[in-house]
Amino acid sequence: MKRVSAKILLILLVASTLVPLAQVEGWKKEEGAKYGGTFIAAFIGSEPDQLNPIMTTLSNSHAVIPCMFNSLVFSDADWNILPSLAYDWDISEDGTMYTFYLVENATWHDGEPFTAYDVEFTVNRGWKNTTVCPYSPSIFGFLESAEAIDDYTVVLHTKQSFAPLLLYLSTTLYASIIPKHIYEGSDILTNPANMAPIGTGPFMFKEWVHGDHLTLERNPNYFKNGLPYLNTIVHKIIQDPVSQINAMETGEIDGLSVPPQQVAIWEDDPRFYMTTKKETAQAGMYIVQFNMNETLSPIVGGFSERATTVRKALHHATDVDFIIEKIYFGQVIKGTSPFPTSVWGHKDAAAENPREYDIDLANQMLDDAGYPVQADGWRFELYMPYLAGGGVEQQTAEYLRENWKKVYVKLNLEGMDRPPRLGKWGRGEFDVIYEGPYHGPDASVTTGRFYMTSNIVLYPYTNCQQYSKPIIDELFVKAQTTTDIEERKIVYDQIQEIIWDDCTTIWIGDKVLYHAFGIEFPGEPIAPFGNDDPLETLWWTGGSAYTPEGVKQVIDSAEERINKLAGQMYKVTEARAKLEAAKAAYEAGNWAEASSLAEEAAGLAKPPVELYGGIVGVIVIVIGGVIWYRRKG
After folding, report:
1. Where is 355: in which H helix or E strand?
2. Domain extents for the chain?
3. Looking at residues 329-349, what average pLDDT do you find?
């Protein structure tokens, strides 16, 4: 049998790093992708509150979290549910047991193995804990418990069938898994890991310079072999939308969420590509909410005929078409229901119950409601906090203030940064407020969180306007537990008709959102929840075709051979020096150079010629002496 030299083996191993790793079924890879590079994004508009994925509803945090954590399963932008921490799963016939079979090669970023006990802990101590998880009532209310069967099998038990559960398990936005060994025995809310997280995801936390940026670095032990491609991701914290655009224009950043007014400008710009694919599950809406708690907001709150008439009058006093065209540059589909048009089950409630712009009608309705114009020139005053900075929220707030003057309503505005504005929303400290929340993928849950009494939890992106109506609670529960598609649609229609008639909100319309990326960063993002994307398939065209894992194997093999030869008295000084250079190139991310240097190092070990020559000389002398002695005898 022919033996293959160590050098040839190294060459074969190097060649293997140029070939894409075998596809793991369900894990997306990018053909021709290269490794290395730093991607700088401005997806964060203000400082995140923390980075524990199960504790926050804030988009600023969720722009960073999916790069560091995984969910059991994953949805792509086309709504295919794919493997992630679970490579397979079964659902019982009655829909009350979900059995997940977990990958066995995933580790936490600190090296500890990921197991079913992490899932069990996350569900029972995290998702089910209403103090910890703001999504708990609306999304995990039907989830009873998790049970680890063995190290790599876990069963989720539900109280009854819950039609959209798998959809919500398929995103880190709702269903990230956190490490039991880090959080067990501590207060999850105050654990230091919330600010320096340890996940299983494609990137690891490196640093957080508050007010400026967060830096993540590649996870070399990621369980999805061959991913991610990038070395580093930097999330810049840039609050001002104009500054974000300028940073993209000058090359300071490589990606951002595109403001509506910028879409037409960048549409044909060869430096960037824009995509709406990241938003397929978002179903976001621009809305103006009224505070429905009549104690906190007696003029617009509650379900009395008077308060309902006031809300409807203010809707009639709002020119939604003007807002869409002048503030959002037409990047909005006009709202006709509490459900966005892009989610299944939408009904055009406005067709049967229109609420068009009509100042004369609005004035008449306010007169009829018993709010005449007073001596000071106003009927009443309302309070609206807003996000300062000149963006669409501030522009919308200023439009409402000016236009509602036409019906003699004084709208007092207060501009502030995002965290305090979100705090006011969560605590119900407003009469009127602007927001842009998402409603997908299933309205029974994600729209339900804004209207179900059980989700009044005084936290942003929950039922912050404190709407509470038993019939609506019952209908949302029915929609969540009914599997018959026609029956679900009937229930959805009823929900939309009732809430539209209550006029709890001015639904401006569906967002049409774009994300822009530098053309040198292909690998279109794969998640359907906007910024909630692991960025594991994004890559840099200036990178290397060598996988870092493959090059590390080349270096390790070269070092093993050099050490072995050193034990055989080979001269390895030059080989070791070259190997150190290979290691330095590897640490610098120069993987092609590192591989070449390691290959050279393995060939530099030299046999000890002087020693072998001396031995041969002694042998010759001895043999010669023996021959001479025999002849002499």
Report:
1. none
2. 38-280+514-518, 285-511, 547-633
3. 91
How confident is the model over 176-194, as a mean pLDDT? 97
Q: Within a 10 A sphere around the Cβ of 622, how many other Cβ atoms?
A: 10
Nearest C-alpha neighbor of 199 from the set 221, 169, 225: 221
- Alpha carbons within 13 angstroms on the beta-carbon side of residue 411 total 26
Comparing CA positions, the residue from 106, 115, 128, 122 lying closest to residue 184 is 122
Domain 38-280+514-518 has CATH 3.40.190.10: yes
Q: What is the pLDDT of residue 475?
A: 96
- Residue 139's alpha-carbon distances to 171, 278, 373, 441, 565, in angstroms, are 12, 22, 45, 12, 61
- CB-CB contact of 605 with 561 (8 Å): yes
* Three-state secondary structure call for residue 91: strand
Instruction: Round to whole Å and give the CA distance between 302 and 123.
Output: 36
Tell me the pLDDT tens digit for each residue of 386-435.
Answer: 999 888 999 999 999 999 999 999 999 999 998 899 999 999 999 999 99
Please name the helix (run of DSSP H) or strand (run of DSSP E) that holds residue 7, with its range, or none.
Answer: helix 6-16
| CA dist., res. 593 & res. 36, Å (int) | 13
Distance between CA atoms of residues 178 and 554, nearest Å: 34
The reported pLDDT for the residue numbered 337 is: 95
Q: Is the pLDDT assigned to residue 279 strictly greater than 80?
A: no
Dihedral sign computed on CA atoms, order 126, 127, 131, 134: positive
Give the CATH number of domain 285-511; options: 3.10.105.10, 3.40.50.1000, 3.40.120.10, 1.10.510.10.
Answer: 3.10.105.10
Is the dihedral angle over the CA atoms 553, 559, 560, 561 positive or is it negative?
positive
Cα separation values, 579 from 142, 231, 562, 570, Å: 57, 22, 9, 16
Q: Can you give the pTM of this predicted structure?
A: 0.70
For residue 169, which phi and psi values (nearest 5 degrees)?
Answer: -75, -10
Q: Are 127 and 408 in contact (CB under 8 A)?
A: no
Residue recorded with tokens 């932008």: 77
Non-local CB neighbours of 603 within 8 Å, separated by 6+ positions: 7, 575
Give whole-number Cα distances, 538 to 36, 191, 501, 526, in Å: 11, 31, 45, 9
| Rounded Cα gap, residues 125 and 208, in angstroms | 27
Instruction: Please report the pLDDT score of residue 589 as a whole number.
Output: 74
As a whole number of Å, the end-to-end CA separation of the chain is 47
**For tokens 């300028």, what's the residue?**
246
